[in-house]
Amino acid sequence: MNTKPDDEMLALWLEDELDPARTAAVDAWAANEPEWLEHRAAARALKPMLACAAIPREEEVPHAEFFNARIRREIELAAALPAAAAPVVPGRVQRRFWLVPATAAAGIALGFWVGRGVPSGPEPLPPPVADLAPVLYTPEKGVAAEFVATENATVIVLDGVAALPDEWSIPETAVQEPEARPVADRR
After folding, report:
1. 3-class SS at 8?
2. How far apart are CA 41 and CA 13, in angstroms?
3. pLDDT in tens, 37-93
4. How many independent structural domains does the chain possess?
5. Helix/strand number for the chain, H first, E second
6. What beta strand segments (E) does the chain contain?
7. Helix or strand or coil: residue 149?
8. Is 38 contained in some domain?
9. Residues 134, 135, 137, 142: what is their CA dihedral angle, to the nearest 10 degrees?
10. Cα–Cα distance, 50 to 40 (Å, whole number)
11. Would you say residue 66 lies in a domain?
12. How far apart are CA 32 and CA 4, in angstroms?
């Protein structure tokens, strides 16, 4: 065989799973291919390690009797230990069952009583606040700000800031009012 066998045939040859006629043909081709002969020797050496006899059998799951016996043993151990719990006196607990509802009712009654003591009527005025002058914040050091308010305008004078150039103006779009759209008639 002068041509190389396909990958499937080589894989079957490595695992010794080809029929005798094909095995002889691939052996004739592999006689001139020492690399493939090494691969086959390595596969044959690895095969006994991976044989089913080397893998342990599955262990069976213990039956229910195993679990039941363990539970019974734990119960017997717990019963053999002395009980450390304090005895419950049923009369003492039953005498105080009314305490929780009575406390809740007393709390509700106290809330209504305190609520009635709040005067009703006009809300009291807040305490008078001194007439404060506005405080101007300037983010730069060395800038002094003065706030001047007249009837028609409010002006903030900043000393220490570079003057705006004469050609700079506020864009018309910044001062325009939003367009009023007609509202749909809902009749």
Report:
1. helix
2. 11
3. 898 999 888 887 776 655 666 666 667 777 788 888 888 888 887 766 666 666 555
4. 1
5. 7, 2
6. 144-149, 154-159
7. strand
8. yes
9. 120
10. 15
11. no
12. 11
Give the model's pLDDT for residue 148: 84
**CA 167/CA 124 separation, integer angstroms:** 55
Q: Quote the pTM value.
A: 0.29
Separation of alpha carbons 138 and 144, rounded Å: 8
Q: Which two tokens stand for residue 14?
A: 């490595």
Of 43, 38, 49, nearest in space to 17 by CA: 43
Tell me if 47 sits within 8 A of 20, measured CB to CB.
Answer: no
CA–CA dist 136, 143 (Å, integer): 11
Q: Rounded CA gap, 149 and 156, in Å?
A: 9
Range of the domain at 12: 7-46
Q: Which two structure tokens, joined as six digits, stand for 102?
A: 């009575």
Taking the alpha carbons of 152, 154, 160, 165 in that order, is the dihedral positive or negative? negative
Question: Has residue 118 been placed in a domain?
Answer: no
Contact 13, 25 (CB under 8 A): no
Q: What is the pLDDT of residues 130-141, one digit of tens each?
A: 666 666 666 677
Distance, in Å, from the CA atom of 148 to the CA atom of 156, rounded to the nearest integer, reads 6
